[in-house]
Prior knowledge:
This protein is an all-alpha fold. The chain has two domains: 1-115, Cytochrome Bc1 Complex, Chain D, domain 2; 119-225, Cytochrome c-like domain (Cytochrome Bc1 Complex, Chain D, domain 2), CATH 1.10.760.10. The chain is 55% helix and 0% strand. The protein is built from twelve helices and no strands. It has helices spanning 3-37, 47-50, 70-82, 90-95, 99-111, 121-125, 130-138, 148-152, 171-183, 193-200, 203-215, 221-224. The longest helix is centred in the N-terminal third of the chain and has 35 residues, at 3-37. The protein starts with a helix and ends in an 8-residue tail after the last helix. Residues 115-130 and 221-232 have low confidence and may be disordered. It binds heme C (2 copies). One heme C binds next to α8, α9 and α10. It comes from Modicisalibacter xianhensis. Residues 26-113, 134-217 form the Cytochrome c domain.
Amino acid sequence: MNKRTRQLSSLLVIWGACASLPAWADAIQRGQAIAQQGNGQGAIACLSCHGPQGEGNAAGGFPRLAGLPAGYLSHQLRSYRDGTRQNPMMQPFALALTDEDIQAVSAYYASLEGEDVNLPTSYQAAAPENTAEWLAERGDWENTIPACNQCHGPNGQGVGDTFPPLAGQHASYLAAQLNAWRNGTRSNDPNGLMQGIAERLSEEQIGLITAYYATLPEQLSANAAAGQEETP
Ligand code: HEC
Ligand code: HEC
């Protein structure tokens, strides 16, 4: 791209963002209503499991949704709907959501600031294990496992709509997802990127790496401004 086209395209991006702002604000408002009251069509209030601020619940295995990218959230909801991600609890709710509901509720959760989320103190206090940090940053190439942060971004903060943040997510939930890829109940990952990795991780590594990411602080503000373009 030369300088002029770049200038022109950034102008177009700004113009596009301004034009779509009111629609985005409407979607967030509608999404908030669904999160707090359900959609009246079979999807109950999301907050009853995902918490009043989308902070999730470690004991229940309910993931944090606050501050995750909207594109990632809507992909997950569509995956529960089409069965490429199976979960007996989430699937019925996802099936009860229309495309518009999915867009709205994803916009809403993406708009919540990570800072509003109160993680249980046990997650903040535990000391990260060296081996988990090594796995996160360098991988375990003897077992053909790439560094998690290669895809999930520095400190597991996530990259764009495709690679979700792992930092600050509940350990129990992260472990459940790795096990879901191992037993085939989650198969919605692009090109099977995660399934192979999950299969090659040892039980011990799963325990360490999920505890490690749960202790890392989330810095979700970069992702939280949903709908924006990420420059990797
Ligand atoms: C009865 C409890 C319950 C309710 C109500 C509920 N969820 Fe969930 N949700 C779960 C559980 C459990 C999981 C983890 C399932 C799994 O392991 O795949 C989950 C996972 C998710 C995920 C995947 C998150 C990720 O990081 O991949 C999204 C998105 C989600 N829920 C959105 C919603 C929305 C939107 C609503 C409201 C319309 C809702 N949920 C209502 C229990 C619930
Ligand atoms: C080659 C790229 C790549 C690498 C390396 C990678 N991941 Fe992932 N991971 C992904 C993608 C893509 C997704 C989202 C899949 C989807 O759309 O459902 C994901 C999702 C996840 C999730 C589910 C998060 C959620 O909110 O539901 C967990 C847990 C996870 N990865 C853990 C790891 C761990 C631990 C490592 C390192 C051992 C790792 N990943 C390495 C690409 C990668």
